[in-house]
Write the structure tokens for this entry.
Amino acid sequence: MASHVVVIDSSLRRATIKTTPTKPLSEVLEEACTKLNLSPTQYGLKHSNKQVDLSRTIRLAGLSSGAKLELVQLSKSAGVVSIALQVPDSEATGIPNGRLTDKFPSDTTLWKVLRKFEEGGGSRNFTARGIPSTTQSGAGRLYYEQPVVQVMNRELSSLTDLQKTLAQLGFNSGSALLRLSFRATETPLEEAMLQIRGYFESVEGPPSETNPDTTPVRDESSVAVNQPIFTPEPESSIAHAQSHQETQPAAPSQPQPEQITNTTSRPVSVFRPPSSSTPAAARQLHNDSDYTPTVEHAHVHQKLLQQNSRNTRLLTDAQLAAQEQEEAAKWAAVKDVEIKIRFPDQSAASTKFGQLDTAADLYKFVRECLAARWRSEPFILRNPGIRGKNELIPDDSSKKLISDLLLRGRVLVNFGWDDNKASVEARSTKSVLREELQSQAQELRVQDIPGVVDDDRDPGTKVNVGKKDTKSEEGGGSKAKMPKWLKGLSKK
């Protein structure tokens, strides 16, 4: 087995690294980059012009003593890694096979991986666990239980180890299995939380100051923090996620909804619950001919098939950066967004938010619309989206509604009580609006769309895909016959 390897960079500089059979190649890369004053996150290793799997050890890689490894620069764009987290039996309740699976960029740290899996369930707690001490006298003080992640034959438990990215562990693509366990420490839980907070402030810098009136104070010493990450919807999904009555242009003669300004900090339009249990869109008549494919549809479909079957090169870093700038400029041009909040009794309140408004401002506005007895109850807001993902909107003053949460046009948001924190009385209540808003609510009028009259003179063209032309075989045509001289040649 190799007792040392030689790492050579593009300028032919050499770094000799001492190794053992169980030493991971990711550590070899880190030591070589340290000696050559390079960043290990931007480089990989090659042996005999083949990419080396950094997650393997020297023994599994089959490197001989004195093997020469080439230091190559990796792509700046992070790869996607499928992670399976094997949790202990005590945490495996309700988890299929005791494994949590998700996909992460290769530049994600192990700590963020644990936090993401932790936020996926309300009762999961991987990073802020406390266990009572039974060996000392007292009322049973809580001591910190440290997470330990096992990758291959390596154990990573300290904060420095858990700040390593998946790429530093050798996972730039493909899949990986992480085994999670917990180890009791002698550090009190509150002191451990202060140490963790101080460590992240020293690494990432102190958090930006926020408005204490609109931002809830987060207690790091509490157990499982449930704050799911918001995944923005694509632009096309947001555009189609609007309700039927919102997307239709209003008739000039139809009066605009009356806006109420004396009870809330923003002008608000309030609508009564629908009188019928059947949605208005379900009562609209449709024309079956609207679903009949035309020649234009066939042409567009064939064009898309040809485009998708054509080989195209990947975008360069400059092109990706230009796309990001173009996308940012497009969202910066959006001045405001109209958000309609639908409450449990199907009543709704609508108002507009600007570029500088945050998710915390949205929660503050909704709280102003509630009756006084329900304002202290914790609630959540969800964006259903076009595909029904029902994404949670976090109560965060650092998340802007337009630039961060990608809300534009008219968006429908559903109001719901927090099942883990709200009282039973609140969860069983349907009517939650203030009496002033209920008294000034108006009926939501859905404009009838006039049907399109079919023109009998233009029946359209019917396309029979996959069928041959059979006009010549019908009564009006004659079937072409083979000439006699050609039959004679075929017999020879």
Notes: The first strand starts at residue 4 and ends at 8. DSSP finds 13 helices and 17 strands in the chain. The radius of gyration is 32 Å.
